[in-house]
Amino acid sequence: MQASTQDQNGLDPKILNFYRQALILLKESKVPFLIGGAYAFARYTGIVRHTKDLDIFLHPRDCNRALEALSAAGYKTELTDSVWIGKAFYGDDYVDIIFSSGNGIAEVDDLWFEHAVEEKVLGMPVRLCPVEETIWSKGFVMERDRYDGADVAHLLRACAEDLDWPRLLRRFDPQWRVLFSHLVLFGFIYPSERSRIPNWILQELTSRLQDEMRSAAPKDRVCQGTLLSRTQYLADTELWGYQDARLISKGR
Question: Which has the closest alpha carbon to 83: 109, 113, 63?
Fold first, then answer.
């Protein structure tokens, strides 16, 4: 994995102080957290982005406690979406309190913390979201206005030899086709790098695809596109009679 110095030059001093205070408050409240988003992405790929928010990942059981600690310090807070995210505001700026993914699949659990990476962010010692879980979370983001496929490709290019491939595969089960699609695209994006993806995982996923081809298609009419985009498959579920895979996965 490639390390890079975090570039803070794009942050206004007031915003930088807000971010630091948020992290200090969580530490003082003994809320375990990880840093993701642009800071983790820069650590793993060397690509630095200046964004207007800070992504803080934590276990779902700690979300309310984190929001309460930030609220008690005077910040406006909200549980933006009960499936995956809350926010704490300082004027127009905010930090994201993330405990899952928008589709409810990539929920933060103890393994995120077990495999976290030590780093300094904003001059403070913190832990970053593991690259495997970052790929898992980003792998499903295929909205009309946001597609994280390039991020996945850059993470694979930077970290392929160091990935815990068995764990990554387990993370994507049973949505293994999503991982397969990113690995196939990686070989298209970087023809000279395609051998860095282990043969065994490509063979395993190809074997699964072949098994599916030999078996009958499911009778239930389910649209799993909703796991990739919240807006682009509304016609499927509202007009054409497909079941929303998000509701099935949550037993609703």
Answer: 63
Q: What domains are there in the chain, each with its CATH number?
A: 1-129 (3.30.460.40), 131-215 (no CATH), 216-249 (no CATH)
CA 61 from chain center: how many Å?
18
Question: Omega before 174 cis (within 30°)?
Answer: yes
Give the sign of the dihedral formed by CA 93, CA 99, CA 102, CA 106. Answer: positive
Please enumerate in sequence order all residues whose Cβ is within 8 A of that of 62, keeping only pairs 6 or more positions apart, or say none: 31, 32, 33, 99
As given in the structure block, the two tokens for residue 178 are 């999503």
CA-CA distance, 5 to 70, in Å (whole number)?
28
Helix (H, G, I), strand (E, B) or coil at 212: helix
Token output for 183: 């690995």
CA distance 245 to 252: 10
- CA count, 13 A, side-chain hemisphere, 110: 0
Q: Is this model's pTM higher than 0.90 or not? A: yes
Over the stretch 67-117, which tens digit does the pLDDT of each residue have?
999 999 999 999 999 999 999 999 999 999 999 999 999 999 999 999 999
DSSP code at position 100: S
**H or E element: which one contains 120?**
strand 117-121
